Amino acid sequence: MALTGRAALAAAAGALLILAFRAPATLVLVNALLVAAIAADVALAAPVRAVRLSRSGDTRVLLGERASVELGVENPSRRTLRAVVRDAWQPSAGAAPPSGRVTVPAGARARLTTALSPDRRGDKTAAAVTIRSLGPLGLAARQGRQAAPWTVRVLPPARSRGHRPENRARPGRHAGRHLAPTAPHSDR
Fold first, then answer.
1. Alpha carbons 130 and 96: distance in angstroms, whole number
2. Mean pLDDT across the stretch 48-62?
3. Radius of gyration, CA atoms only, the chain
4. What is the per-residue DSSP string for 41-86?
């Protein structure tokens, strides 16, 4: 369970009521209402364990370029999922944005796109996805983590045109120039 900023604001408003009335009954009433509202919010939030995750997108990228990976979020429960989803990658992957808000109706699916701007070569792997399912009041949330494995291989940058695969496949081309055959020289 995680509390939100709204829960803190509700507690602050309750504290003002307690200070205004200065009665022990007010303290008990405000705290009981706050605890009941938080418990109801957690109970009405969509279950996190039921959420199904999938990935698709780029598996290779050249250093200095951007890759795009989509995270599919499927909600098989009977409640609407209002969630903050954090798609964590290793730091050198340069993931942006690291988190996003989604609203997925019961039985539906949503997609989040993460752009990767890696700063080093090698394999960049996705870490666990954290899902924070908010209740309808926005006071509290259920939270959980799930694995959604994906790897993007970062290859060295293609600095010259002659080293690109399409130029290596065609003999007689290098760095964008054609090599023309020369006529034999004749000595007169």
1. 15
2. 96
3. 28
4. HHHHSPPSTT-EEEEEE-SEEETTS-EEEEEEEE--SSS-EEEEEE
DSSP class of residue 20 equals: H
Contacts of residue 134, Cβ cutoff 8 Å, sequence gap at least 6? 4, 41, 45, 82, 83, 84, 140, 141
Residue 53, pLDDT > 60, answer yes
H/E run at residue 160? none
Contact 136, 41 (CB under 8 A): yes
pLDDT of residue 97: 86
Strands 52-57 and 67-74: antiparallel
CA dihedral 15, 2, 82, 131 (to 10 degrees): 160
Burial 42-70, CB ≥16 within 10 A → b, else e = bebbbebeebebebeeeeebbbeeebebe
**Which residues make beta-bridge pairs with 60?**
153
* DSSP bridge pairs for 144: 131
Amino acid at 184: P
Output phi, psi for 19, to 5 deg: -70, -35
Residue 146 host element (H or E)? strand 140-146
pLDDT in tens, 134-171: 999 999 999 999 999 999 999 998 775 555 556 555 55
